[in-house]
Amino acid sequence: MATEDRAIVNAEDATPENTPSGVEDNVRWHLMSAGVFLALAAITGALVSLQLVFPELGTRIAVLSYGRLAAAATHLFLYGWLALGFLAAVYFVLPRISGRSVKGEWLALVSLIAVAVAAASGAVLILAGLSDGRPYLQAPVFSEVLLLVGLILSTVVVTRTISQDVGHLVPAQWYLLGSSWWAVLLVAFALLPGLPGAVGAMQIGFFRAGLAGFWFAAAGMGFLYYLVPKLTGQSSFEGSPFSALGFWSLAFVWAATGPVLYVYGPIPGWLQSVGVAFSIALFVPVALIARDLSILMRGRARLIEDRVTFAFASVGMLLLVLVPIHNLAQALRTSSSVVGLTEWTTAGDLLLFGGAFTFWVFALAYHATGSGSVRRGLGLWHLGLSFSGLALAVASMWIAGVATGLTWAADVNTGEFTAIGDGWSLTDWVLEPFLAMRATGMVLFGVAQLLFLVVVFSASWRVPESEANINDEAFDLQLAGEGATISCPALRGGIIAAFAVVAILTVFVPWLDPSVSEATILADTARTYAEGSPAADGRAVYIREGCVACHTQAVRPIVPDVGLGPVSVAGDYVNESPALVGTERLGPDLMHVGSRLDDADALRAHLDDPRADRPWSIMPSYRYLTQDDLDTLAEYLLSLR
After folding, report:
1. Which residues are bridge partners to 8 per DSSP?
2. Residues contacting 260, CB < 8 A, separation 6+
3. pLDDT-derived band of residue 298, with 50, 70 and 90 as boundaries?
4. How far apart are CA 367 and CA 370, in angstroms?
5. Residue 332 near residue 376, CB atoms below 8 Å
6. Per the omega criterion (within 30 degrees of 0), is the bond before 578 cis?
7. Measured between alpha carbons, how far is residue 40 from residues 33, 123, 416 in Å?
8. Are 506 and 213 in contact (CB under 8 A)?
9. Which of 101-105, 309-313, 535-539 is the least confident region?
10. What is the pLDDT of residue 174?
11. What's the mean pLDDT in 397-406?
12. What is the pLDDT of residue 23?
């Protein structure tokens, strides 16, 4: 094959002379800041898991309550650790791919400050009781706008840097430019006002899937397409038609899986089917990307010297391969009737955000600091503890999800409905050992990140040059393909078009469905809250305390939900913003809880001390609330009929 047709180009020509081994200040500050946020999120997450085992832990202090702490931990992890970590990956990879320095270093530093302040302020405001009530977007608007500003500045830097290349771009650049633009579009979309009821729930489903596919997966792929050739002594991978197919299929498929969050839930049935179809299609981009990376690795793994970096990257890719399998089990109606609204859903988030994406940022840190080679022992300990903790937590949540779902179905079939009231004790009994295993895993994972802080803050920040001696002529170029050419303007247009198509398909078209936009009798009579009314104030307390983390407000048309009341439909939520549909039941469903309760005093007493009448309950105590807050919260719950 002619030299110009090769999918592998000269590595020396793609390495900037001013950064052959030293790491730029931007990358260093991003990774160090990300490391701090990781430590805070890991410690907070471990405490949250322990509260499910020891429910009295922190219940006398408002900022340590389960609902607030869980939301703050998620915010720190997503927008502090992962956001800054992948921005570091962008700034690290681009100059080493193009041979040109990053354009606008000062803008990148301002972006860092904006994103870091957004992450920190968001967590503080959530703990202070200013939650927005939307899963994955619980910080107040101030913090989200600041995050958007930081991402816009970063995207300006990335676009200016990549635009210096007048020729075609390589896969690493495709993904890094895509992740930057998609992150901006995604957060801007999340800030759109006026999406009430079930439409708001669809917006959250799209955001969650887009956060994974559009932002973090794309950034991670950009890093891996740089890292694998680098570790194996090759040069930049130019890509192939299969590479392009992998990129565009990732762009169109992953975010379109958002509706699976509400299978059997209050969204149109056809939209649920769309989510199922794209969940099946998710195997395509993952398989194509794995194919590329496998070809690049073939026959070269034994030559890799930085085994720690390689191990983190490989484990992350292995975890990514598990994601489509996990997602499909949640999407298919047969399996979803068992694992839906259980710990299975949260396990998917942990597998992806705490697993694949996190391990790729670890790989970046070890590679950028040079610690993968010079601190191998510490790195392997960090890898072992992190993976062990993650595996224990995810496995326990998987098993808990299946066991819980089967328990709900079995009890209904035997005529002993136990998904409400005192009958919930059976669910807590089933969950108890798995929650303990999950807490153990999260504590182990948290301890591991203390080792990571040592690595980041004591590193030399010198990237070792690869000494692998590879004969490129021995590489099977037929498997790599003939190359794929995408220009920067065409890429930007495709990136925006992909986002628009998926957003329209999964949010705006369903909004036009009359079943979504027209209010039901229930919505107009029992789920309308006049401003300043006790029920409206109680709903605000419900949102502030993060009750949606443990309770759903949606009855599904399946056996496990028999006895919970009328099946929920999209029109039931038209007058609510946000709609508190929920995604997991660690406690009973509350959609029609007012129909099952008639004693306001008993309800207030239960909120103040759940274990006074139900010693088995894992519900946190709200004794720190004022009497007025307890009264209005009880009023709101009693209004849910």
Report:
1. 237
2. 205, 272, 275, 276, 279, 327, 330, 331, 336
3. confident
4. 5
5. no
6. yes
7. 11, 10, 43
8. no
9. 101-105
10. 94
11. 95
12. 61
Judge contact between 42 and 445, C-beta under 8 A.
yes
Quote the percentage of the chain above a pLDDT of 90: 69
Rounded to whole angstroms, what are the CA distances from 141 to 76, 181, 390? 16, 20, 32
The sign of the torsion formed by the CA atoms of 25, 20, 150, 162 equals: positive
User: Are residues 464 and 21 in contact, defined by beta-carbon separation less than 8 angstroms?
Assistant: yes
d(CA 154, CA 162): 12
Q: Are residues 64 and 43 in contact, defined by beta-carbon separation less than 8 angstroms?
A: no
pLDDT at 410 over 70: yes
Residue 471 CA to residue 232 CA, distance in Å, equals: 11
Distance CA 436, CA 45 (A): 14
Q: How many residues does the chain have?
A: 641
In angstroms, the CA 43 to CA 340 distance is 28
Tokens of 29: 């500050």
Helices and strands: H and E segment counts in the chain: 26, 0
Q: Is the pLDDT of residue 373 over 90?
A: no
Q: Encoding tokens for residue 24?
A: 């730029």
pLDDT digits (tens, 9 = 90+) for 24-74: 788 999 999 999 999 999 999 999 999 999 999 888 899 999 999 999 999
Can you tell me which residue has the tokens 């999406």? 195
CB 25 within 8 A of CB 36: no
d(CA 88, CA 451): 20
Q: Which residues of 249-280 are buried (b: 16+ CB within 10 A; e: fewer)?
A: bbbbbbbbbbbbbbbbbbbbeebbebbbebbe
pLDDT in tens, 581-638: 999 999 999 999 998 888 889 899 999 999 988 999 999 999 999 999 999 999 999 9
Q: How far apart are the C-alpha atoms of 98 and 14, rounded to whole Å?
A: 5
R_g of the chain computed on alpha carbons: 25
- What's the mean per-residue pLDDT of the chain? 88
Q: Where are the alpha helices (DSSP H) in 129-170?
A: 141-162
How far is residue 366's CA from residue 468's CA, in Å, rounded to a whole number? 18
1: its two tokens: 């094959």
Label residue 439 by pLDDT band (50, 70, 90). very high
Tokens of 378: 């510490």
3-state helix, strand, coil in the chain (%, to 5): 70, 0, 30
